[in-house]
Amino acid sequence: MKTYKAKWMMYTKKADFDGIAERFGMSPVTARILRNRDLMEEEEIGRFLRADLSEMYDPFLMKDVKKATDILNVKINENKKIRIIGDYDADGVCASVILYKGLTSLGASADTDVPDRMTDGYGLNIRLVDAAKADGIDTIITCDNGIAACEAAEHAKQLGMTLIITDHHEPQDETPEADAVIDPKQKDCGYPFKELCGAGVAYKLMTAMGVNAELLRQLLKFAAFATICDIVKLQDENRIIAKNGLRLINEDEAVLSGKDTPGYNKGLRALIENTGLLNKKIRSYETGFILGPCVNAGGRLGSAKTGIELFLEEDTGRCTELARELTDHNTERKSITETATGRACEIIEKECEDDVIVAYMPDCHEAVAGIVAGRIKDRFHRPAFVLTNAKDGTLKGSGRSIDEYNMFEELKKCEDLLIRYGGHKKAAGLSIEKDKLKEFSDRINDNASLTQEDLTKKIWIDVPMYADYPTEKFIEELSALEPFGEGNKKPIFADKGLTVEDVRLLGENQNVLKMMMRTPRGKKTEAVKFINDRSVKLPQKGDSIRITYYPEINEFGGFKRIQLKVDDFEFET
Q1: What DSSP line would sit under 195-217, residue for residue?
Q2: Is 222 helix (H, G, I), strand (E, B) or coil?
Q3: Which pTM value belongs to this model?
Q4: Mind spelling out the 3-state secondary structure of 332-366?
Q5: Model confidence over 225-262: pLDDT tens digits?
């Protein structure tokens, strides 16, 4: 597999940085970062920095929200049984929790169900509909799924059931026949912001239902949790949800104080404690890379119902048990993922030259296919699909994509080969007959128009800045731009002419490179880098390097020191 060296790119967008800095009380460096995020007008910069809940959009602007609220109010008044059917990932879990807590607070007779990843696959299906009917359910409301469930929707209607779909995935050519279909990505939906996650859509529906302000405050934490974990763009309304929800998590879950507060969620608190995050600030990293994977692991190796139960449970002891179960699943998941990723990368390195990687891994655990696809995508900077054997004799798998490739649209061009598929630009799932795998791989590559430029990773540098320039005050100023993630990347700075004076490998897996460097100005600075690719040549004492980095404050043993988190490095001659 031929790969291309990462290309360092410098933003060159122009603006009155000094003027912006003066108006908003920030440094010109931070003003430049805002401009690099395409924030230029004073009003949009102010909205970005405020991230105020009062600036959320009216939920009734979303297609069928009024229709859904009317239906649900009637069902609640008639005491009809309502079943919430979510997805088996963190977004689906959080969306289910939001709908359950919101509807039951209004007097609804409601319960939840989730498809089994291994036996049901993704989304609403006929078995789930039949199970609901057998349990006397009158109304099904989906969350984080349903926009592609035409067959199941038709079956529900034939059984005389009411069906409300809430989703955020890309609609396909046919929309399910439901009593209400809420998905901001529908072409005829006039909602101003299209990038909500499934839990975000559920939160907007509960807002429209008139759930009380204190409960909405609690539900916002789960909307934020899902928004970060589902890697949707942290812009516009998503930024408001994520920033305010994280603030509430840090306040209510008593993360920093360790004391119980009236608004804390016992399950979320137990998960935070069990993952070693108590007394640490919960940011997007802790949510997306520590807490979220534990919730996801329930749906991968156990049941997503564990996550739902955890966030609804009121018994502290039971919460501790459930949190431990999820973290144990995640530990197992990480081991399975590392083994599968190593095997896949070794094969691809030797045998694959395609621009779109289609990896058939018969022994790969179906539940980690998407994670492995993501690791392959990161390693080779190519769109990647990982497919494995399903119990019914077909192949099932997941894909992850680079920015330059719309995975959902490319799958659509191959839909005649697929049993089912769904997703969005950056991630997708699919099922296919085994004998069509070769044709699928050939066609998905023949259709691809990726260039060498597309297949070259770009590292966008916000500002060239001396490695010894950052101060605690400057780092605190940068924190106003959080949360970082998709659509609001963590700023990247760059410096050159750094001399390595000491280098060590740390961590249980020896995958953390720690360096002490001397800058051209004669000052020492400390840096760390996580090593994901063991084939990369590492800096040694005496080497001269240039780096891209982000400055952080490392707190340990009661002391604070500035540490650079290195994204990339290159040797200088």
Answers
A1: ---HHHHHHHHHHHTT--HHHHH
A2: helix
A3: 0.93
A4: HHHHHHHHHHHHHHHHHHHHCCCCCEEEECCCCCH
A5: 999 999 999 999 999 999 999 999 999 876 666 666 77
DSSP character for 486? Answer: T
Q: What is the DSSP letter of 485?
A: B
Q: What angle do CA 323, 316, 367 make, to 5 degrees?
A: 15
The one-letter amino acid code at 382 reads R
Per-residue CA distances from 529 to 257, 380, 418, 489 (Å) = 30, 19, 41, 18
Pairing of strands 395-400, 384-389: antiparallel
Look up tokens 């061009």; give the residue: 413
Q: DSSP assignment, residue 548?
A: E
Question: Omega of the bond prior to 483 within 30 degrees of 0, cis?
Answer: yes
Domains annotated on the chain, with CATH: 7-50+458-571 (2.40.50.460), 59-252 (3.90.1640.30), 352-447 (3.10.310.30)
CA distances from 124 to 88, 138, 287, 415 (A): 11, 16, 27, 19
Query: What are the backbone angles phi and psi of residue 161, rounded to the nearest 5°?
Result: -90, 155
Residues 439, 414: contact at Cβ < 8 Å?
Answer: no
